[in-house]
Design a protein that fits this description.
Helix content of chain B: 25-40%
Shape of chain B: globular
Largest sheet of chain A: 4 strands, mixed
Distance between the termini of chain B: 42 Å
Strand content of chain B: 25-35%
Oligomer: heterodimer
Chain lengths: 373, 247
């Protein structure tokens, strides 16, 4: 145990001596929180739109008024014919055109069913999906008030769309889980794989292996500090989310931390696996980046909603840990759900963790056992 | 040097699949002896050292290191030996003292013992002013000497040096060998591999390996006499050169 502690102490010395590591460890999460929180907001303010009102009735006017009144939209053009649509888009000032057909109001009150066409600028898919989403929400909102007025006598089912968990549709609610996922993968998998490979590359691994330290002590000793620091990171991110963006953890903090620990373990197992497969630090970084960072950025549903992707990506994302973890964090943090809701995702992560641990233990053993040089 | 044997190897065979890396090695090393282990790359030196250090198990044969069976109890061997690899084995981002404390700790020494010995070691090497210097900022020669001092810091029975002087200037090499002699005089057995044939002359006894077998084993003087050569270098080339010399 004393041998082991001497080794762990050394690992901490490495980390605290290298300012670059410290920057990655503590600067990056803070930076990401602020960048994602303020700059890369995926919510909407004053997006330019155009309307083409072929109905010219009370209902369409009222809806246009609502669109105009919302802080999300600014009506740039009132078009008079379909011919203007192309030109309006080409000028790049608008993100969408809302088109009311003839007899819109009459059809809606008579048949209880009318269509509004929404054409969005597909060259910016994300904005397009946001804009149409907001518009649809406003339309739904309006139609629900309308139905209520009309159905004083006959009760009909009232379609009420409400943003329950994120009433203002604020985006930083969604990015905090994403940042946690990203940072944990970065610190636990990437940094541990790099630190282990560094020992190999510098030749110090050989000396450690010849020492009385057992191989598992070397590995645990190398990853333990990162486990600890990852946890500190989670807490820093949560506190920042709380104090800077006013986003408290709605569910159980203990559960959230426990889930994070599970995810860190998974990251460490992957990091060890990567480190046992390569001999150069660049390769460790490259592999970690390619197999862990990019997928967690792109396929976890953190930035781009998985529902918007082709089905194949949906299936691919299922084998990636971040997808499940983002779901867990969202549920616990934002929806306040407990283990009963996320047991399936948790179980998947537990299985993945055990799988990678077994695999890396086996690989490490094989390499140490009978390696020739 | 005494007659007490610290390494006993008898009919050591190590196979990787059908490839025989160590073919029937037999030799003994005595306490306080400087034992040179020579051979071209791929001759099986590294494999043998790995077995002696408890990193790898012999396929068959008897290997006793410090009286411990390498096949049955390799972990015990590790506590009794020191090791310095051809690649630099200290942590560059730690200070001299931190490196010493690390290895002292890994080898289970008490903190108190470590600090008194560290002071003593820095004195002996004339290193007092470097205690809190990062290894990175030390000249290569000093680093190499320090690496050796660290390898024997815990007073092992045997220290294995795997090409310790590669890439070191002649003066430092000379000083390095002086340290080796001092260490051997303290009763620590030195097991050294090298590619410098002049260094082979400094050893008490020399083994030359070729294609997994020991082809020569004796004192440098006796070897030169037996083979009628003027130097170990000449002898080495004579023994290990492949018969169909491909140029």
């Amino acid at each position: 145990m004393k041998r082991f502690m001497a080794f762990v102490r050394k690992e901490f010395l490495h980390i605290f001596r290298d300012y670059r590591t410290l920057i990655i460890l503590f600067g990056l999460p803070a930076m990401q929180i602020l960048i994602f929180g303020y700059a890369v907001r995926t919510d909407l303010t004053n997006a330019g739109i155009a309307v083409l009102d072929n109905a010219h009735d009370e209902v369409s006017a009222e809806i246009i008024g609502k669109l105009e009144a919302s802080e999300f939209f600014e009506i740039k053009f009132h078009l008079t014919s379909y011919d203007g649509i192309d030109e309006a888009f080409k000028q790049g000032k608008i993100k969408e055109v809302v088109i009311f057909p003839e007899n819109f109001g009459a059809r809606l009150t008579r048949e209880g069913n009318a269509t509004v066409s929404i054409i969005a600028d597909g060259s910016e898919p994300n904005t397009a999906s946001l804009v149409t989403g907001y518009t649809t929400a406003i339309l739904n909102d309006y139609s629900s008030t309308l139905t209520r007025q009309l159905t004083s006598a006959i009760p009909v089912i009232n379609p009420e769309v409400k943003m329950y968990f994120n009433p203002n549709l604020e985006s930083h609610f969604m990015f905090v889980p994403g940042v946690i996922t990203l940072i944990l993968i970065l610190v636990s998998a990437l940094m541990t794989s790099v630190t282990i490979v560094r020992e190999k590359e510098f030749g110090t691994m050989e000396v450690l292996l010849v020492s009385p330290l057992k191989p598992w002590q070397i590995i645990i000793g190398k990853v333990a500090p990162y486990f600890f620091l990852s946890l500190v990171n989670v807490i820093v991110i949560l506190l920042m989310a709380w104090f800077v963006f006013g986003l408290p953890v709605r569910g159980s903090v203990a559960l959230l931390i426990a889930e994070c620990m599970l995810y860190i373990l998974l990251g460490l197992a992957i990091g060890i696996l990567v480190s046992s497969s390569v001999d150069k630090m660049e390769n460790a970084i490259f592999i970690s980046f390619l197999t862990l960072m990019l997928p967690s950025l792109l396929l976890s549903g953190f930035i781009f909603p998985i529902e918007n992707m082709p089905k194949i990506y949906d299936y691919v994302s299922m084998i990636l840990p971040p997808r499940w973890f983002v779901e867990i964090i969202r549920t616990v943090m934002i929806k306040g759900g407990g283990l009963a809701v996320i047991w399936k995702e948790t179980l998947i992560l537990v299985v993945m963790t055990l799988f990678f641990m077994a695999l890396s233990a086996r690989k490490f053993k094989v390499r140490l056992g009978e390696g020739t040089k | 040097m005494t007659d007490q044997k610290v390494i006993e190897v008898e009919k050591l065979v190590k196979k990787f699949g059908s490839f025989v890396a160590n073919d029937n090695l037999t030799f003994d090393v005595c306490k306080g002896e400087i034992f040179g282990f020579l051979g071209a790359n791929g001759a099986g030196k590294t494999t043998a050292i790995r077995i002696l250090c408890g990193l790898s198990r012999p396929t068959s044969g008897k290997v006793l290191v410090a009286g411990i069976d390498a096949a049955r109890n390799p972990e015990e061997i590790k506590k009794r030996i020191g090791y310095m690899s051809q690649r630099f084995s200290l942590y560059e981002d730690l200070t001299v003292t931190e490196n010493i404390e690390l290895y002292g700790g890994i080898y289970g020494m008490r903190m108190k013992e470590i600090s008194t010995r560290t002071a003593d070691l820095l004195n002996r090497l004339d290193f007092q002013q470097y205690g809190n210097t990062l290894i990175r900022s030390l000249p290569l020669g000093l680093r190499q000497k320090l690496a050796f001092a660290v390898a024997v810091f815990h007073d092992p029975d045997i220290v294995f040096l795997d090409e310790p002087t590669s890439g070191v200037d002649p003066i430092t090499r000379r000083q390095f060998w002086e340290m080796i002699w001092e260490t051997a005089a303290r009763g620590i057995t030195v097991f050294v591999t090298t590619h410098y044939m002049d260094e082979a002359e400094y050893c008490d006894r020399v083994t030359i390996m070729n294609e997994g077998k020991i082809v020569a084993l004796d004192t440098p003087a006796a070897l030169r006499a037996n083979y009628g050569t003027d130097s170990i270098e000449e002898l080495f080339v004579k023994i290990t050169r492949p018969k169909t010399a491909a140029v």
